[in-house]
Structures
1.
Amino acid sequence: MMLDVYCLFTNMWGWIALAVFIVFIIILYLLSPLISPQPIILHNAHVIITGGSSGIGKALAVQAVQQGAKVTIVARDKAKLEETKAELASFIPDEKVEERVQLISVDLSKDYVAVENALHTAESNFGPVECLINCAGTSSPGRFEELPITDFKKMMDINYLSAVHATRAIIPSMKIHGRGRIVFVSSQAGQLGLFGFTAYSASKFALRGLAEALQMEVKPYNIHLTLAFPPDTNTPGFQEEQKTKPIETKLISETSGLFTPENVASIILADTVRGRFFSTMGLDGLMLACVTCGFSPVTSLMEATQQVITMGLFRIISLFYLDHFDRIVHRCKLEKDAKENSKKMS
């Protein structure tokens, strides 16, 4: 009899704990909009996309146009820009493409004054910028001591400084109008350092520091930043980097799979519209965002709670990932040493 009463008592408290937890989650869900930015509407909004002539940037341009935005595409290659414009024209059947798409050919990493003048011209044509997406980037994989020293500067110039220049040119207008979205497209290699990405990872990590500091500055002006961490994406840039990527880097990168530009673009654009600070893809992306969240801005109570609850678990899982990566590097070294010894013996 006493055992039955004890079981009933413990079961009752278990159900009460579950009910309290459910109520807590519901309250968080209801309160989240209080700190979440108001979603923006892309229809007729002016969206500038750097690096928009290929890869993820091009996919973002297509989807922004499909949602009715006026899109300014910024890149260096004039021929690629014209090809992209022709492709976008197929999504604008009832309007002249010139009224919805404009092209800017400028090197974002070099002359800030030239960048500023070009983007101000874009604003005079299409109106104030509602959303700036910094997607211009490149990668030079290779072992640290084998990479040309110039590649380290090149990565910082293209992946980091180009975003600084474009953002600096647009921020004043956004402040005047009291709203805006700014996106920095980093990488999962901007969340953890990977073999072969000493130059690339450093430049992508830099974007996070910029994003977190800048968000604190512009939040009072109703300007919200999104920091995107795409995994390997099947773009022309990815196919090019495969030619020089060390075998260790290839094997490590394969653990996250290969995404399509369209899939990545749709997630980034949706997170931008909602004003989410982190934009991640896949389960690995979610884990990395949680385990590296640190002092990052909070745009959702639900997301913050999930980070607090799962951070310890994801850290444990990350240790297994790191061990797996170390084993890959060690195995490749043994294979390399064996080949070198074989050559010496022959």
2.
Amino acid sequence: MPHMVKNRDNADVACDSYHLYKEDVKLIKDAGFNIYRFSISWTRILPNGEITLINQKGVDYYHKLIDELIKNNIQPMVTMYHWDLPQKLQDIGGWANPLIVDYMEDYADLLFQLYGDKVKWWITINEPFRVAEGYETNRFAPALNLQSSIMYIVMHHALKAHGRIFQLYNKKYRSKQNGKVSLCLECNHYEGKTKSKEDIEAANRAIQFQLDMFTHPIYSNEGGYPKIVQDMVDEISKREGRKRSKLPAFTNEEIQSLKGANDFFALMNYTTQLCTPKFSQYTNALTKPTGSFHDDINATYSSDPQWPSSTTPWLKVVPYGLRELLKYVKNTCNNPPVFINENGYADGGELNDKDRISYHREYLKEVLNAMNNYQCNVIGYTAFSLLDNFEWFSGYRVRFGIVHVNFSDEKRKRTPKSSYNFFKQLIQSRTIPANQ
């Protein structure tokens, strides 16, 4: 869908890490980072999505990258699925098709076989909430914009796939590979636009539908979806005249396979949003919802005009939001070990990126605040991102990297930004550099 991408940019070459991976590993090493999170492309390994056709060149590339990282004392953290579903699987419904659970399990099994002796940090699915949004809206791939209850189905299948993969690792690989497996969850911090009961409840619904839908099956004693969400969706489904709830039910076996199915909590946070109800009541004909997931949340989102902004409109700089989210995870998930997998700032690609430095400095201070004052169990942090990259529908207009990439140069020249040196200094001193 080239017309949906800014300037009709494409990712045919992008950063060209395929050819420049050794240069990238050198950048990682020179900065002092000891872990590197990257994604394996399902399509690059299995062009048709199935294990009947394995692309050896793709397999070899990831071996070379992983070996280069390990040679330089950098631990690879591998994400199995980051939105690039093989087209043949999308053609049969993608994540809306229950067979996707089997295909994903087969793919994961192959990755464990190929790389599990060397990779000790695994992410099964990146941002399953946003994966599901790609079916209801046009904001994320595959941008189907169905405006229906399909998000519940996609989220359900993503959870089932994660549970199956976790249990597969337990049964077949853990004893000899001794790695860690997690599901990577992205969440904003939400708070009421005002102190009114209605606004606070809207903020609570927002985090329950975005985060608790995934954490409750894994971290609660009883398993399954949060009761408040289950009851709400069941009631809405009745009001809409449905014969069954829009929220699928887990089998007892699936509930058990998901309980405890995380070796660590992989968390992503960028910003904070303010919430207020979207609909006054579901029976009002003038504001009748469409039956979609987002209508069921019944919340609209905004930001405080005083919050600093980035190049991309959704990303407002609200450092305390990460602290509050870490506290929420601690309180609702029994204080699991949290690895912050993404946190970053968007600009236009400036080399002297003072705003990015300020963003990371203030967010990292709040991470320390959460650890020291609230005993949140944070075990790691990976900034997004090492390189400027192809940023989905924004193309190359929006830059997140601490290393500049010249996309007009066929050699894709890399140039460290000021933020690269900020992190280098941070790692050397083990303290957050002061304002400069």
